[in-house]
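On to my pick:
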Amino acid sequence: MSEAEIEQGLERLGAALLNGSALQLVRIAGGFQLCTQSAYADTVSRFLKPERPKLSRSLMEVLAIVAYRQPITLAEVDAVRGVQSDYSVRQLQERRLIRDVGRKKTPGRPVLYGTTQQFLHQFNLNDLSQLPKLAVDQPTLPLMDEVEAD
């Protein structure tokens, strides 16, 4: 089948599911997924009681740095954060939110990290262009430990 025929078939399937089904076809993470229509979400979630693994503030911080600056090395993540991030990187790899995407062509050939399909899926993104835009003109406030005490 051609790509156009497959797209047309998926559109027909999506339209058919919207009429009288609790399921819907959605485009996510560069593909398609069957999921519950929002009208039935509360009922299904009460039944399944899914527990989303919580990400700590430090994990979210490292994940955001990787997402916006990928491909990026561990040393570059450390430089942005100002603290060691090796534990956070390992945790994010175990959760399959980031992965090794290659090696930087510099001495030592450090590992480069980038986000995964699981990252897109967990944050309900079709691709990285849907990440919120960063406001670069806004001045940043100093961290509490950088403020001099009177």
Remarks:
- Residues 4 and 119 are 28 Å apart (CA to CA).
- The longest helix spans residues 3-18.
